[in-house]
Design goal:
The complex is a heterodimer of chains A (about 130) and B (about 140).
Chain A: E1 6-7, E2 20-23, H1 26-35, H2 46-59, E3 61-62, E4 70-78, E5 87-100, E6 103-114, E7 119-130
Chain B: E1 14-17, H1 20-30, H2 35-38, H3 40-44, H4 55-70, H5 72-77, E2 79-84, E3 93-106, E4 109-119, E5 125-134
Antiparallel strand pairs in B: 1-3, 2-5, 3-4, 4-5
Chain lengths: ~130, ~140
């Protein structure tokens, strides 16, 4: 299988991670609802969609050995609800990369579209990588 | 749903108990198996000294509070900005509180801006932020 990961050192502003598709299946949503200790209805919780988008990006990122990425901040905007069973496509790009001494910050822009290419949500995640 | 939507009003708080089982379930559901969340021996050697909950798990609780207050309007058109100040750990009980800071009209539509914070049982802030939501036309 082709390795689609990119090393942290090679990330530059504007870099686009490979888009990732997810099916928001009954089992995925029920597992999510159990994890967040919540009840659901016929719609997918928007934060479950965000979690998929962040994971898609993180799965494509290779960090230096021993480095941990800490979620420092998150902005989100929701545009539409999706029914369980919908398919989403997650896009992420590097907005900024900041090095402050031993601390690095990675600012990523996220966009999620449904199967009709309509925007479902967008956001910005800041990850801190303590050196 | 919140029945009295007015500036200064508090949202109904959400209280959750964090367990390693929930963190593991969240990792499975989200696919985020960062060892800081799920590998206790790895996490013990980090400055955290043990596993921590995903920041997005705490944010899910914030979203639950907003959904309880504003219903589908939040789920389909909400907007939030959150800063993760500290980590929640297994064994913590976190409480999410929020209040309506302002209600503004834009093009004939009312929007509520709320502040929120998530604190652990010691009163330490885990997450703070703001959320905005369109209000149903028959409210306000």
């Amino acid at each position: 299988m082709q390795d689609r990961t990119v090393s942290y050192e090679k990330l530059t502003p504007g870099y686009e991670f490979p888009p990732a598709k997810y099916e928001l299946s009954v089992s995925l949503v029920s597992k999510y609802l159990k994890a967040v200790d919540s009840s659901g209805d016929e719609f997918v919780p928007p934060l479950a969609i965000t979690a998929c988008a962040i994971t898609a990006m993180a799965g494509s990122l290779s960090l230096p050995p021993g480095t941990i990425a800490i979620h420092a901040s998150q902005e989100l905007e929701f545009f539409k609800l999706l029914p369980i069973g919908a398919t989403i496509e997650c896009h992420a790009r590097v907005a900024r990369k900041i090095n402050r001494g031993k601390m690095s910050m990675l600012i990523l822009e996220l966009e999620v579209f449904d199967q009709n290419k309509e925007k479902v949500q967008s956001g910005k995640a800041t990850l801190a990588l303590p050196g | 749903m919140l029945t009295n939507i007015q500036e200064g009003n508090a949202l109904n708080p959400v209280v959750k108990h964090i367990t390693q089982e929930k963190i593991d379930l969240y990792a499975e559901a989200s696919g985020d198996f960062n060892p800081i969340h799920v590998d206790e021996s790895f996490a013990a050697k980090t400055p955290f000294g043990g596993t921590i909950a995903h920041g997005m798990l705490n944010l899910a609780y914030v979203s639950e509070m907003m959904a309880l207050a504003f219903g589908q309007s939040w789920l389909s058109e909400g907007k939030l900005s959150a800063r993760f100040k500290q980590s929640a750990r297994p064994g913590d009980t976190v409480t999410i509180n929020g209040k309506i800071d302002s209600i503004e009209q834009k093009n004939g539509v009312s929007y509520a801006t709320c502040s929120f914070e998530c604190r652990n049982q010691k009163g330490e802030i885990i997450v703070t932020g703001e959320a905005a939501v369109r209000l149903p036309t028959d409210k306000k």
